[in-house]
């Protein structure tokens, strides 16, 4: 099958290519001397990335000097460890990324998330592919705080928890381009929240942080590239979606996303603190 060139942003320093992955967007930033990969897509997308590099950019995969992973879901992180293993490309991600699927419950969530990806793939007419990937990423460049991206200091890392606790966005201040991962999705002309969002307060704070950036182009993890004339309005709108009633699909996804340790431990902590508060108030008749 022929592969099509798709450039979504271009300037004097680099051009950004969009590679359509199994269900997500993969962005390849082409510099004269190197390539930067923004998310790896699924494990089955590696072949597509390689074909794009070789046939469209006329560059070998080894020209990719860094693969940044926005978060650990299979459609964004699935191929990263294999890309490192096969091509020696280092990986950067938030330092807590490997907690997401840890332990027995993490194993269950990992399998459910892989199945969810296959379900989404089928619903958009994709053939069944292998999406199963390792639960540990062990980033070569663990990111501890907001600041310049290792090896590509023209990109700033922005920690934006909410969808997971370790989501990161990347912002190119000079060109006003934001790689948003799953924080902003653009589907059929409408902006959407990622699924699930268990950490609502953190998500709201993340949108507030993003609204402080002078963004004019948003590269979403799914859907069409967004030309943001009013970036402040965009993130205010996203923040407003947090409290909207859940659709049937959203409810279902939340119900099967409870096994991640950070999610069930957080819920358990809330329940225990509510119980201890009500015991305290009934004992002292507050
Ligand atoms: Fe995600």
Describe the structure.
The chain is globular, with a radius of gyration of 19 Å. The chain has helices at residues 46-55, 74-77, 80-87, 103-123, 200-211, 231-241, 248-255, 261-283; strands spanning 7-10, 15-20, 25-30, 35-38, 64-68, 91-94, 141-143, 147-149, 152-159, 168-172, 177-181, 185-187, 190-192, 217-220, 226-227. It has one domain (7-241): Metallo-beta-lactamase, Chain A. The chain contains eight helices and 15 strands. It has a seven-stranded mixed beta sheet with strand order 1-2-3-4-5-6-7, covered by helices on one side. Strands 8-9-10-11-14-15 form a six-stranded mixed beta sheet. Strands 12-13 form a two-stranded antiparallel sheet. The longest helix is centred in the C-terminal third of the chain and has 23 residues, at 261-283. The mean pLDDT is 94. Strand 2 and strand 3 form a beta hairpin. The chain is an alpha/beta fold and 286 residues long. The chain binds fe (ii) ion (FE2). Fe (ii) ion is lined by residues 71, 73, 163, 182, 194.
